[in-house]
Amino acid sequence: MKIALVDSGIGLLPAAAAVRRLRPDADLVLSSDPDGLPWGPRTAGDIAARALACARAAAAHRPDALIVACNTASVHALPALRAELEPLVPVVGTVPAVKPAAASGGPVAVWATPATTGSAYQRRLIGDFGNGARITEVPCHGLADAVQSGDEDRIDAAVAAAGRLTPAGARAVVLGCTHYELVGARIRTAAAHEGPLPELYGSADAVAAQALRRLDAAPAPQAPATGGLTVLLSGRPGELPQAARTYAEGRLLADALPAPTGRRPPA
């Protein structure tokens, strides 16, 4: 079984790691776009075109399913990707987990990029699945870029700034950008305001499970860890970015990579 994932950058790591945990025997193809990131400020048409280019590069490796591991691309590119790849390759999009978070009763904070915060898409999602809970949209200025860079100081500053915009007493935080799941523990602490830690609601586990369902494949976390890893950078064969290895999800995936010739793998 081979599953491909598409994102502008390392925001695809949480979903890829979730697939790896469910099926250690599955091959993964990670197709990102370092030449074009970030996608958020681009026009809808440009986002769709770049996501489609990443998907086509991944499709050349004949995956059984493709995960659009990016909220922005799921909004703007999912119809085009499904029109081109399905039914041969099932395409699974990513939707912020507003529905399960709101079911907890609220209050809920939705952390998202400034471009997504207040957008018609997010407002519609909240209207359809908010379940009457008190929901606050929190724009996270610079957080996705900081996570992409792996710069600890930038990450801490962006998380702290978004934390100050989060109302005290939030019982749940929805992670509306896949990059944010890489720093979930820090977000949880910043959103707590020294009170009880809120529950975090990401999308990676749900997306990974949905990909397996689309393939009629059962989770098998005890399967042999034989799954390989292919990395595509704007269509070119490459390696996991160094920043990816600063996160637990990146290190989990890096374990599948062969050591460079003449060098031993890091301890």
How much helix is in the residues? Answer: 25-40%
Main sheet: strand order: 4-3-1-2-9-10
By DSSP, the count of extended strands is: 10
Element pattern in H and E: EHEHEHEHEHEHHEHEHEEH
Mean pLDDT equals 93
Strand-residue proportion: 15-25%
Q: Class of the largest domain in CATH?
A: Alpha Beta
Low-confidence residue ranges: 258-267
CATH architecture of the largest domain: 3-Layer(aba) Sandwich
Give the end-to-end Cα distance, rounded to a whole number of Å: 29 Å
Number of continuous helical runs: 10
Shape: globular
SSE inventory with pairings:
Layout (H helix, E strand, L loop, with lengths): L1 E5 L6 H10 L4 E6 L11 H16 L5 E4 L2 H15 L5 E2 L5 H6 L4 E5 L7 H10 L5 E5 L3 H7 L2 H13 L7 E4 L8 H9 L6 E3 L2 H11 L14 E5 L2 E3 L9 H7 L13
Parallel strand pairs: 1-2, 1-3, 2-9, 3-4, 5-6, 5-7, 7-8
Antiparallel strand pairs: 9-10
Kindly describe this structure.
Mean pLDDT is 93; it is low at 258-267. This protein has helices at 13-22, 44-59, 71-85, 98-103, 120-129, 143-149, 152-164, 184-192, 204-214, 248-254; strands at residues 2-6, 27-32, 65-68, 91-92, 108-112, 135-139, 172-175, 199-201, 229-233, 236-238. The strands form 2 sheets. The protein has a 6-stranded mixed β-sheet with strand order 4-3-1-2-9-10, with helices on both faces. A 4-stranded parallel β-sheet has the order 6-5-7-8. It is of the alpha/beta class. It starts with a strand and ends in a 13-residue tail after the last helix. Helix 2 crosses helix 3 (71-85). The protein contains 10 helices and 10 strands. The chain folds into 2 domains: 2-94 and 205-254, 3-Layer(aba) Sandwich (Rossmann fold), CATH 3.40.50; 98-202, 3-Layer(aba) Sandwich (Rossmann fold), CATH 3.40.50. Keywords: Isomerase. InterPro entries: Asp/Glu/hydantoin_racemase, Asp/Glu_race, Asp/Glu_racemase_AS_1. It comes from Streptomyces hazeniae. This is Aspartate/glutamate racemase family protein.
